[in-house]
Design a protein that fits this description.
cell membrane, two-stranded antiparallel sheet, mainly alpha, 267 residues, 2% strand
Length: 267
């Protein structure tokens, strides 16, 4: 147990140290993108979570050795890398599922499509390791891949995706009866360290961060939830993705007083 506690403390301290370091690296590398206000700020700050995740996983292995720990670590790093490729792409014109499919019919594979295919492949690989039947493999694959993209839907305004993540992670923390509870706790702490600069539009998570946070949630809920709860979540995510292709979440939030107040909190 002491290894887990030591690892947790060091991981959080590492996060506090690396926040400014990663910001400087991205800024100096001209890894910048215009936000919704037209201001150029560093994108890809989701890299901030990786050093702490690696350190905590190393210590946690000494306390609790399970395949799922490596799956969380590898899944998060791989999806962050794929998201980083998308963040570093100059052409941002092909957004949404329709845009990527149109380009595919023109024999052009966008980084967004590559991200989706990679996300599905990584989700399938993880599902094969944690599932006990064909039905579980299918549902876990869908849950992880849809959860990954679900976080992308919220990364449109400062701090919004991080707020959504913290809310879901808190729910996951209290629902968890496994080692994922430690990981939920870590990511909640890291998100609280990170969110101030996100809310003030100093930097952006980017696909690097939303992918990482999304697949993290997907893996943890796939490990923790019962089969029928996972089916319900998959149906919910499918509906939300269809909904997102037709309407703007930002407009819906802006028209609702309570949602808008929560969305603007901290900005």
């Amino acid at each position: 147990m002491q290894y887990a506690i030591i690892g947790f403390v060091i991981a959080v301290m590492t996060g506090k140290f690396f926040l400014s370091q990663i910001y400087n690296i991205l800024f100096d590398s001209n890894m910048l993108q215009e936000n919704f206000k037209g201001e150029k700020i560093p994108i890809g700050m989701g890299l901030f979570f990786i050093p702490s995740l690696i350190i905590f996983s190393m210590f946690f292995q000494l306390y609790y050795n399970d395949t799922g720990i490596n799956l969380i670590l590898v899944g998060c790093i791989l999806m962050a890398f794929v998201g980083y490729l998308d963040d570093s792409t100059v052409d941002k014109s092909n957004k949404g599922l329709k845009g990527h499919i149109k380009q595919l019919f023109k024999n052009k594979v966008t980084t967004g499509m590559l991200k989706a295919l990679a996300g599905f492949g990584i989700s399938l690989y993880i599902s094969l390791s944690i599932s006990n039947s064909l039905q579980e493999i299918i549902i876990n694959t869908l849950l992880i891949s849809l959860f990954t993209n679900f976080m992308n839907l919220w990364d449109l305004r400062p701090g919004r995706a991080t707020k959504v993540f913290i809310l879901i992670a808190i729910i996951g923390f209290f629902l968890s009866i496994s080692y994922t509870q430690y990981y939920f706790g870590l990511f909640i702490c890291l998100s609280l360290i990170y969110i101030k600069g996100d809310l003030t539009a100093k930097y952006m998570l980017g696909d690097t961060g939303s992918n990482l946070l999304g697949i993290f949630l997907g893996i943890c809920f796939a490990i923790d939830l019962g089969f029928y709860y996972k089916i319900a979540l998959v149906v919910f995510f499918i509906v939300m993705h269809i909904f997102a292709e037709k309407v703007s979440f930002s407009k819906i939030i802006a028209k609702n007083k309570l949602l808008n107040k929560i969305d603007m909190m901290g900005r």
